[in-house]
């Protein structure tokens, strides 16, 4: 602060900005007080107090759903020969919310996929698929009957929904315009669990009990070529923007990479953690994220070298599903045994938040338009929606 000659003292400094929220749903700290105004000299009027600091940002841990902080308080009034202190900064804004959707008692939801611009599809262990309207976050229509114990689900560029039926050794195709199964079930390998679609539309299905991957031609909805041998108990499968297919081999503790031009394995299996099940590719960086159940970690694979980069990222108990936001690049991981979802910062590859969802969360997907995250809770028979 400065001193005026027979006049008003200088204004106090602006208060500091409040801190960001430390966890999901926690408001940021208030801003600091403004500086005290300068005292008047020889009876001059005291300076005006500084403005209060801005409130901290709300819940920065939830990437993509950070609310703005409150506005700083007004500066205090001058008192005597000294200016008043600045007002307190506004409180930080609250972060996003968790909404719970019931899919019916005994349903046992485990897989989830989002049809861009359309509905959300959830596979239920009881042999059905539930459809959620993302505008109302409610189940729409009746459950769609598919095969036995459906697991993985994926949507192709045309909107058709492919469902892997574990007990039936088939894949069902759902027409998104009618939300009914179209055509006959497609026979694949033994124990299909994971399903992913490449940019060209080909559908890749992991066969857990057969240790193979089947490829479905979307124009005929029939299997093309021979099953591709991979590692032991292949579970999760994901495709990068270039079409390369990444398969998490649960029993082998590796990831296999399939060349989409030849549909053969390229390179050596990539060692990851113990019991890998989930795999996802970042649309932002191309990095591949793999959950390892028995290690309680997430491994990151560099797609240029197809090797693990950095140290495994510790998450919750029995990490299962993994998805990446195409908007922010944030990574979301379901932790099967503790009913939570971990949020990983893609810049630091560290966990920035742990969010409580339902019991035994498995499948997870991100709406590419809104950024909302959908989690299938098999033990609660619910779907959690995390949104801003």
UniProtKB/TrEMBL annotation:
What Pfam families does the database record attribute to this sequence? Vgb_lyase
Matching entries from InterPro entries are given as: Host-pathogen_enzymatic-act, N2O_reductase_N, WD40/YVTN_repeat-like_dom_sf, YVTN_b-propeller_repeat
Q: Which domain of life is it from?
A: Bacteria
The record's section on Gene3D superfamilies has: YVTN repeat-like/Quinoprotein amine dehydrogenase (2.130.10.10)
Which NCBIfam families does the record cross-reference, listed alphabetically? beta_rpt_yvtn
Task: Specify the protein name.
Answer: PE PGRS family protein
Q: Which organism is it from?
A: Mycobacterium riyadhense
């Amino acid at each position: 602060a400065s001193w005026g000659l027979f006049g008003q003292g200088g204004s106090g400094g602006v208060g500091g900005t409040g801190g960001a929220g430390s966890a999901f749903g926690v408001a940021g700290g208030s801003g600091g007080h403004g500086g005290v105004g300068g005292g008047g000299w020889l009876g001059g009027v005291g300076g005006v107090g500084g403005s209060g600091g801005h409130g901290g940002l709300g819940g920065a841990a939830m990437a993509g759903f950070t609310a703005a902080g409150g506005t700083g308080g007004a500066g205090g009034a001058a008192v005597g020969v000294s200016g008043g202190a600045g007002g307190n900064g506004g409180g930080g804004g609250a972060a996003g919310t968790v909404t719970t959707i019931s899919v019916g008692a005994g349903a046992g939801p485990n897989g989830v996929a989002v049809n861009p611009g359309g509905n959300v599809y959830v596979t239920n262990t009881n042999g059905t698929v539930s459809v959620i309207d993302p505008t109302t976050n409610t189940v729409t229509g009746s459950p769609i009957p598919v095969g036995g114990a459906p697991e993985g689900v994926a949507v192709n560029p045309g909107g058709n929904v492919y469902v892997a039926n574990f007990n039936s050794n088939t894949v069902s195709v759902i027409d998104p315009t009618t939300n009914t199964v179209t055509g006959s079930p497609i026979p694949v390998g033994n124990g299909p669990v994971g399903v992913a679609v490449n940019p060209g539309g080909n559908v890749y299905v992991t066969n857990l009990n057969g240790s193979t991957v089947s490829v479905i031609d979307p124009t005929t909805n029939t299997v093309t070529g021979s099953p591709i041998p991979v590692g032991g108990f292949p579970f999760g499968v994901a495709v990068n923007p270039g079409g390369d297919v990444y398969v998490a081999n649960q029993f082998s503790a590796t990831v296999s990479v399939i060349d989409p031009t030849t549909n053969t394995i390229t390179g050596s299996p990539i060692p990851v953690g113990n019991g890998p099940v989930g795999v996802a590719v970042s649309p932002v960086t191309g990095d591949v994220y793999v959950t390892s159940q028995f290690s309680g970690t997430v491994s990151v694979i560099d797609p240029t070298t197809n090797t693990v980069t950095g140290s495994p990222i510790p998450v919750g108990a029995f990490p299962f599903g993994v998805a990446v936001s195409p908007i922010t690049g944030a990574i979301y991981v379901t932790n099967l045994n503790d009913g939570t979802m971990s949020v990983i910062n893609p810049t630091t590859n560290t966990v920035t938040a742990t969010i409580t969802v339902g019991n035994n969360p498995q499948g997870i997907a991100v709406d590419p338009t809104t950024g909302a995250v959908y989690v299938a809770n098999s033990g609660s028979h619910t779907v959690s929606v995390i949104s801003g």
